[in-house]
């Protein structure tokens, strides 16, 4: 609220937030945060003790339901590991979610879907900075990636038995350095070209906004060359 000039001090922010019903602050630690000013607001009479208790109660109720105060042996989630998270059941559910969340903006001549039975007879080129770079496939607040469980577009198509050639064209999403020759070698002899572009957390993330919606760096040039 300080950044938006709704309040002018952390004390004012604490009072306004508690009075508005807010009971949780996403802070950067124990310095320069708002909630440390709540005792001062309470002493000055800007908020009441009952109001403070009303705000805190649902937080601790939720934490108790989650088992945060229980011994680890009583918390079933403490026994979960990768063997559970990456079980066949969970991976199949993730696949179903991915399939159902795809959006086709334009499907000219019924190009998609590519059928597995046809892939062995097709020459595919997978190109672009997102084609085979596991790191850039994750956004804000993602877990630490486990490479063995990550299927990039290139790896996924190769798993299906496709004859795949690959060219990143540029090594990272900003695409400040672009090799057209590398792309032409991969795409020139292909029946189908899969172009993998985007932004990723390197370009756009929380507190790092873009000033326009253009593809970063030479990515548009890469796309135009692939189409050509």
UniProtKB/TrEMBL annotation:
GO terms for biological process: arabinan catabolic process; xylan catabolic process. Keywords: Glycosidase, Hydrolase. Gene3D superfamilies: Glycoside hydrolase family 3 C-terminal domain (3.40.50.1700), Glycoside hydrolase, family 3, N-terminal domain (3.20.20.300). GO terms for molecular function: alpha-L-arabinofuranosidase activity; xylan 1,4-beta-xylosidase activity. Coiled coil: none annotated. InterPro entries: BXL (IPR044993), GH (IPR017853), Glyco_hydro_3_C (IPR002772), Glyco_hydro_3_C_sf (IPR036881), Glyco_hydro_3_N_sf (IPR036962). Residues 103-226 form the Glycoside hydrolase family 3 C-terminal domain. It comes from the Eukaryota. Signal peptide: none annotated. This is XYL2 arabinofuranosidase.
